Every structure is written in structure tokens, then in C-alpha cells.
Amino acid sequence: xxxxxxxxxxxxxxxxxxxEVAEGDERLAGVAGEIPPFVRGTCYVNGPARFRRGExxxxxxxxxxxxxxALTFDxxxxxxxxxxxxxxxxxxxxxxGRPLFRTFGTAFPGDRLMRGIGLESPVNVSVFPFGDxxxxxxxxxxxxxxxxxxxxxxxxxxxxxxxxxxxPFSAHPSFDPESGEMVNFGVSFAxxxxxxxxxxxxxAGELLQRRRLPLELPASMHDFGLSRRYAVFYLSPYLLxxxxxxxxxxxxxxxxxWRPELGSRLLVVRRDDFELQASIPIGRRYCLHHVNSFxxxxxxxxxxxxxxxxxxGEYQVIPELFTDAPRGRPVRLVIDLERWxxxxxxxxxxDAAPDFPAIDPRRAGRPYRHLWLLGISHAGEPGxxxxxxLVHLDWRHPERRDVYQAPAGSYLASEPxxxxxxxxxxxxxxIVKRFDAARVHDDYLLFDARDxxxxxxxxxxxxxxxxxxxxxxFAAGTAGRSTS
Length: 484
Ligand SMILES: [Fe+2]
Fold this sequence. Notes:
The protein has about 475 residues and is mainly beta. It is about 5% helix and about 40% strand. The chain is globular and about 55 Å long.
């Protein structure tokens, strides 16, 4: 056994992947602390929740079938509900009583792809309210519509039949906080040359625009930035050898290759007609998640979490996660909109494998100061680890360090979700789930968004622990009201 495998910075982490997950509905009891009265609405989280089917044990965190959880603050208290997304993959495998489809990181003899051209999505990455429904997203492919109250799966969402199951569609749509418009993208790897497809959908759900742009490289991309006038793509040279997936039986993980010598670029596309404006070289780092983008004084600010290399290799082999978690930082790339050149670059000083950045969604595409993200305290050391820090950063005061450290053996198990205080610009709470692995116990934690270091202002215990989630969103109002 190597030294690296003997050091364990995440004791009992395996328990997060071995939970017997039951769907349920409970009213929370034993809430400690105070929930500010402006917190009304539902915190939705999507994440992979089933890591075994039959004899098959999945290898990669992205492999599990998606489960959506809803934590609803309804004035009478707090309610928790969780349901699997009844995707095509889940229903077919339940019917068969065995695994059928290859996943992001797990292949097996006789496994299938979706129509032979890509993965059948486990719909396990993100969830957003849109119109009358809740949309649950997987890494690529159309979202699935859920009832926002009951979380019942309604079906694959085709935007009125305008998109179909081979339309590439990312798990990171962006929403304009004023118009409610959705902009999204997808990358196609099959066919003669790779391409980037962009979509604009009205708040009413009508597909307003679709455009396909050629890509020089088959670069995988997970997220993008949206300002008032531009869509921005951080193209890292993390290339998908699609023939390995389609012909050789490889997993996506095995077909991805990091080629830093090819360099990273920022593609800037005009938002109203999807015309390419610029392709700007920006070094050789990797970006999984954007933070925000906005224009100010003739400059486009593109804020991302920049990592020294891709992180997907750290999501395996369950439960030995993040053994070599890459360092990274929140970075602001400033583009001169006249010369279309990178004219400035600012870094925030937190580098402990940051990820899952969140902002006040009211500031999406607009100038803003504050962001929240998760970090791993032992980043840079050997041995498995998991997220155990909630970090609040302020672009105006980069030196300020506002960090909540979870107790030893506890992990932060969902993206921070921001619930805004209507009476305070950028004021509000952030909501994060904490998994106590020793006790196999979950609490949702509420923090004063401007002071996370002081610890939670409210602790909301669940009766039963549920698996870690990926992306979270807070929907203010009554969308998630309880119905029973
Ligand atoms: Fe993501």
C-alpha cells in the first residue's frame, strides 16, 4: 500500500456512497437557531444517488442516477422531500432489474449507449425552476421536467418539440434575472467536426434562437458565462476522443485527455445573434465552472474558477475521492471590448481546490462583489478528501478570509445556494448540506452570507441522510409549497 492510500483526510466518506436511499417526505423537527423570515421558498439540489445496481458498483461520482431534493420553507416550518428523476435510464434499468447503460466512469460487458451516440443521461447534475416546471439536467442531453411541488417526473423536456434527444444541451443553463430568458449551449463531438450549439429560450419556453459554431478542437465544456450582451466560453484543452467512446467501449472518463500544451481560449459570442466576436488565448489552465460575467466601462469581466488541471479524475474510484485534488483559484479575466484582448487578470487568494461557486442570482450578468464556494482544507496533501470548507470571498476586499470549517469527519455535500434578503442588496443567507459521516446524519445549514466564519445561524436536521448533491438553487416564493 502506498503512503498516499494510507492517509485518510475523509474518514467514513464511503458511507456517503453506501446509503440506502429512500424517497420520502418529512417535516423537519429539532431546528436549532433562527431562520430569517425572508427565507421563503425552496432550495432544490440534484445529485447522483445510487452507486450500485445488482452486482455492479459504480466507479465515478458522476455515475449515479439523479435524485432531486427539495427543502421548502413555507411559513409553517421546513419540509424535506426527495425523489429520483425517473429518467429513461432509471426506468429501463429498474424494469430490467440490472444495469443496462454505460456511465461517465463505468463500462461493463454488453453495456449500451443512447442510440449508439452518447451516454443515456442519469440526469444527476443540476436543477432549475423554469416556467411551471422544475428542470433536472444531466451532463449532456435534454433536461427532464419535474413537478416543482411533488418532484414527480413529468417527462423529457423538448421545448415544445423544437429540440430532440440528440440535441446537445449542457447542465449549466444561464438565466437572465430580469427577463427570465434561458441561454444554454451544448458541444457535439460526433460527425465530421466538433461544434458548439447555442440556444436562447424565452421565459415562456419558446426557442428563440439556435446557432451552431464550429470548434477547432473536440474540447469538453461544462459551463459558460453570460453577461448582458455576451455569452463567454472558457475552452480548455480537455479533449474527448469520441471514437474511443463509440467504437472501443471506453467510458467518457477514459476518452478524455488533458492537453495543456494546446492552450486555453476564451470564446466571446454576441448574445442576441450568437455571432462569434473573439477567440482570445488565456494560458493553459482548466475551467469547470464559471462564477459570473458582466460588462463595465468598456470591459468584459469573466469570473471563473480556474484549476491547474481537470478535476474529473478526482471523482473516482469511489470512495477514494480527491486524492490529488488540483489547486485552483477564483480568477477574473478582463477583456478590452475595443481591442478584444485580455487586458487584466485578478486572482482571489483562496486555492484549496475550490469548486461549486455561487453568487446572488439577482446579480447574474451584472457587477457584483460576493461569491461563495466549497473548498478542501487538505488540498495539496496526499490521501482522500472531500469538501469541508464553505468560503465567502469579496472582490472588493480580496484579502478578507471568511471561511467556515466543518468539524472533522463532516463534509459539505451540496453547492451553496443563496437566498436573497429583499431588503438588502447582496444580503441573504447561504444554504449548504452537511453530512456527518461518523453518525450518518445530515443537517442543512443556514449561514449569514456575509459572515460564514461564525458558523451556521440555523441547523436543520434531516431524519435520514441522503447522498451528496452537486448543484443547488434557491427558488423564492411558493414554487415548492407543500401539497399534503
Ligand atoms: Fe457543474
